[in-house]
Each structure stands twice: as C-alpha cells, then as structure tokens.
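Revision sheet: structure tokens.
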Amino acid sequence: MKRKLSARIFLTGLELMKPILVPIFWALGKAYNVLFGPSDLRSSHSSEEQLRQKIRENLSFLFDEYGARIESDQTLPHPRPFDYAVVITSIQGLAFRFIRGRGEFTVQVSPTRIPLVWEDLTLVLNIIDPAFQQRDFSSFADAAVALKGHIASLREAFSAGESELQRRLSDAHIHERVVIRQRENEINRRLYNI
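Predicted:
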C-alpha cells in the first residue's frame, strides 16, 4: 500500500507541474534543434553513406550479377534515431533493407510489388530452406553467404500471390506475438508480484 501511495503522490505532483514542465521541455527541444540539429543531420547522412559503401564492398555480387540499385529508405525521416542507418537495395522482384545501429545489424526482404511489407530475411530463409538456421547476422559476410545461395529461391517464394510462404510467415508472426505476450506477463508477474 505504501508503494501505491508514493506512486500516487508522484503522479499528482507531475500533473500539477505539467503546465510548467511542458513549455520548458518544448523550449529545450527547440533549442536543441537549433544548436545540434544540423550536426545530427550531417551525422545521419554520413552513417547512411558509410552503410551504402559497406553494401557495395561486401555484397558486390548483388550489383555485378543482379544489377542492384541502392535507394534511401523514405519511411523514416532524417536524422535517424541514435546512430541508425537504413539503406534499401533493390534487384528485380526483391528489395533488401539493411539496418545498422546501436550494435545491431538487420536485413529485411520484401517483394517489390508490395514495397512496405518487410520481413526478417533470416525468418524467410528458414521458411523456404529448413536447413538454414534462423539467427541474427553478425556481419555483411554472414548476409552475403546467406543471400548468395538463396536469391533464386527468394524470388520464387515471393513471386506467387497468396503463397505457402505468406501463410507460414503469418503463422510465425502469430507465434512471435504469443511468445512476446508470455514474456510480458512473466515480467509483469515478477515486477508487480501478480
């Protein structure tokens, strides 16, 4: 009961301070944008250009064999949050979105006919090739090895309309949501002794 009372006091204090805090934080946000906005923007564009170079160097087969094009991801405005860089590489029928930042490296895939539906590449590869072990890529070399042997099967899997791949991806997403819900419940149980 004591914990709940202190939480109520804190929340009430915040509500009372809200008319003062909102304008202060608004002004601080504007000052930050004026002082550091141009630097953040340059840094964001620089990180993206470095990612483009890494893709050209480490995944050169996409350009040599498949005529890949590099595009910027327009769904997330600059400056990107933290140190994230996002680049899309398109080949005929497929688009790959490379995301790097905060120690993470992710590759997503999408059919070019449905450009905003991105799936984790490792999940898709695991579905179309059960021998492929689903794991996060640790480097461009890992991604290159995975992509080299699977471009044709990826094109084939995504070329069909409502395919077996779509059904299995849907099942995988349902499973992921169930696992996340279970983990949330476990965390809440431990935090709040429910």
